[in-house]
Amino acid sequence: MCGIIGINSNKPVSSTIISSLKKLEYRGYDSAGIATLSNGLINEVKSEGRVDNLEKNNLVQNMEGTIGIGHVRWATHGIPNSINAHPHSSQNVSVVHNGIIENSTILKKFLVGKGHKFKSQTDTEVIVHLITEHLKSENVINSIKKTLKLLHGSFALGIIFKEQPDLMIGARRGSPLAVGYGPGENYLGSDSYALKSMTNKISYLNDGEFCIIKKDQVEFYDEDGKKINKKVLELTSEDQKYDKGDYKHFMAKEIEEQPLTLKNGINEYIDNSNKNINIYNFPWKVEDITSIKLIGCGTAYHSCLMAKYWFEQLTSLDVNVDIASEFRYRNHRFKEKTLYIFVSQSGETADTYAALDLCKKNGMKTCSVVNIIESSIARDSEFVLPIHCGTEIGVASTKAFLGQILILYIFALKLGLLRKDIENEVFLQKLNDLKSLPELVEKTLKIDNKIQAISNTFNEAKGSMFLGRGFSYPIALEGALKLKELSYVHAEGYPAGEMKHGPLALIEEGMPVVVLAPRDSYYKKTISNMQEVIARGAKVLLITNKSKDEVLSENIWETIEVESANEDLLPFLLTIPLQKLAYYSALKKGYDIDKPRNLAKSVTVE
Ligand code: AGP
Fold this sequence. Notes:
This protein folds into 3 domains: 3-98 and 155-234, Glutamine Phosphoribosylpyrophosphate, subunit 1, domain 1; 250-435, Rossmann fold, CATH 3.40.50.10490; 448-589, Glucose-6-phosphate isomerase like protein, domain 1 (Rossmann fold, 3-Layer(aba) Sandwich). 35% of the residues lie in helices and 23% in strands. The longest helix has 20 residues, at 399-418. The radius of gyration is 26 Å and the shape is globular. Residues 297-300, 344-346, 349, 352, 395-397, 485, 599, 602-603 line the site of 2-deoxy-2-amino glucitol-6-phosphate (AGP).
C-alpha cells in the first residue's frame, strides 16, 4: 500500500526520508519518489521498483533541502512507472497522496481548460494543479481548504510549496495520517511505524483535518480552517529491532514465532492465579448485548468466520459475519443490542474502517481486534482487544491470524461465562486446555520435511481444493488463500458437505485436494466427503490429528497428523501445515514471499 513521509527540519532531509521510506516497504509498493525544496526550487526524483533504485540515483545522493516529502506507491490509477510515481509537482507545489480521488476525471477537464498541463495518468495530479490554481488568488490555508472541499474520495496528503520554504501541509480524509515531533524537526507519516525510528511522540489527524508543519511547531485545523488542539501520544516502544534474524523470510520467522505470540496473547488475558479471563474496561453490560456481528477482510474475515463457530458453541448469542467491502454498502437494520466486532491486523484496512465508521454513525457498540493499537480502527472503536503479536511484516498473514482467533476464542469464552451460557467447570476446563496451546503449536511446527516434499504437487496442478466442515471450514478457506497469495495458483476453500452440489465436477484424475478432518464431531462425515473425491481421482492430502484409531479410508495420497487437543483448539493446529504448504510452494517457485505480487500489507484504499 502507498506510504507517505514528510520532514521539516533544521538539517538536510533527503537521506532520512529515504531510510524512512524503507520502513514502509512492508506495505507493498511498485514505485517511489522524493521531493525537497532548495534554492527556491522544488527538486523531484522518482523511480520504478524499490526504494533502493531511488537511493542509487545520484540526483538523490546530492539532494539538498531541509524540507521534503517522500512516497512509496501501490498503483491504483496509472501503470506503475516513474512518471506515475509520487510526488507529483507543478512549479509551485509538490504533493504525495494515499487514497483515491473519485472525481479526478471531471477536475482534470476543468484544469486542462484552465491551461494546466498534466504529465501522469494519476488521480493525484489533479490535487497539484488545483492547489496551484487556487494559489493564484488565495493564501496557502484558503487554497488548501478550497482544494480539499472539491475532492471526492479518500486522501492522506503531504504538500510542500515553492513560495513557502518554512512549512509543509498534511491533510486527511479516509486514509490515515500521523504527525511526529522531533528535536528541531517535525514529521508527517502514513503510519506511526514509519515515524517510530525518528520519534515516539505522535498525533493523529482525523478525517477532514489538516495541519501546518514547521520545523519548530505544528498547527492543526478542522475542515473549516478553525485552529484545533491535538493530543500528543507517546508510542509504545518496541524493544527488539524487528528483522529476519537467521530466517530467509519474515513469513518463515512469523510462522515459527507463533508459540511465543500465542503465549503473549494468553498471558495478556488469562489470569492463572484467579483462573479467570481479564477483559479490562469492558464498556457495556453483558445483558445489553444480544447479538454479535463480526466484520473483516481476507484473512481477518476468516478469523471472523472461525469466531462465529466458537461464539455459537460457547454462548447463546446470535452471531453473524460479514466481509467489510460488502457490509459497508448494504442497507442495514441496525439494532441497538448488537455488538460489532472489527477484526484487522493493521487496523488501517479502508473497507473495515468504513464499516466501523458506518456503525459508529448509527450509534452501534463497536469493538476492534487489532495488532497495531495505535491504528485508526483501534483509535476509533469504543473498545479494543489487542492481539499482541508484535510487528507482522509478511504480507501473507500468519501469526496475526492465530492471534486474532485466539483473542476471539478467549472473548467468546468470557462472554459465555458471564452470560451463564457455559458452566464454570466447563469454562475452567477450556481455560486449562488453552494453556497447552503454545506447546501443541510448537510440536506441530516440526512437521516440516513432509510438507516440503508435498508442496510441488500443488505448484504443478492447475488448481486445488481445500475442504473442511464445522470448525475446519474457516481454516480450509484460510489455507486456500495462503496458497493463492503466495504461489499464484488457483486454490478454493469449500465446505466439504457442499462438494456434491456442484464443485465435485471439478475433480479429475490427480487433482490435489486438502481435506481437513480432525477427530472432531464432524470427522466421520468429512471422511465420507473425502471418499467422494478420491473415487473421482483426487490426490487427497488428509490433515488430521494424532489418534490411536486408524483413518477409515484407503487411497489417501498423503496424511499429515497434527497434535491432538480439545476440539476447540484443533483449528489452531490445522492452520500450521497449511501455512507451511503455501510457504514451501512459493519458495520452490522463487517468488517474493514477503511481498507477493499485486498485494499490500495494509489495503488503505477500497
Ligand atoms: C492476509 O494473508 C492477506 N494479506 C489479507 O487478506 C489481509 O488479511 C487483509 O487485507 C486484511 O488486512 P487487515 O487484517 O490488516 O485488516
